[in-house]
Design a protein that fits this description.
By secondary structure, the chain is of the alpha/beta class. Helix content is 50%, strand content 13%.
Length: 223
Amino acid sequence: MRVYFPPHYRTALCTLLMVTTCSCSDQNAQGDVAIVEQTVQVPTMQEEPTTVVFLGDSHFAKQPLDAFFTEVEVVNSGVNGNTSQQVLDRVLQAVPGNASKVVIGVGINDLLLGGSVSEYATNMDSLLRTLHKERSNAGLIVLSIMPTADPIYETDINACNAILRSMCETYRCEYVDLYEPFVQGNVIQPSLVYDGLHLNKVGTEIWVEMIRTALMDRTYPNQ
């Protein structure tokens, strides 16, 4: 059955349909805008930057660590001439509470200044115990003592490094052996240093890569 609408009815119906369609489109558009605005207003979650503290002596202090380790936030707490006792004395001031990792490198000045292996061991035990307790969220990386150009220190360096390795097992630290890669006979390789103690460009490149490898290792939480 066909339904007949007079002309003026058909005109009114078309007008009503157009108004209804526009109204729905406007509502949909407004809904889309609302959704977009709501999406824009949602805050994005950003991860906290990884803060790595380098705690030690001139091997850190003389290096542009922030240029070497651009992937992390670097705190260079190296001080020229520092011994293990001096590092221990300032450890909580040098390592902020938000530190993700602490790289510890100290010891050669103890021996150069006539300190004993037992004194060094006592200081390092106190240092690691303090960090383990007071900065428990930070992973600890301990660098061994590197060889020097004077073979007189070889025996004490090896003794200190053996102690460090054992302490790292106790305090769940990552131990990085910087002795074997740099030694030649019983002294440091002359081609890797500029003064018999501090690393030149070639030596520094090796040193940086070994530390970077340790920083990427996530198997040693200090917990």
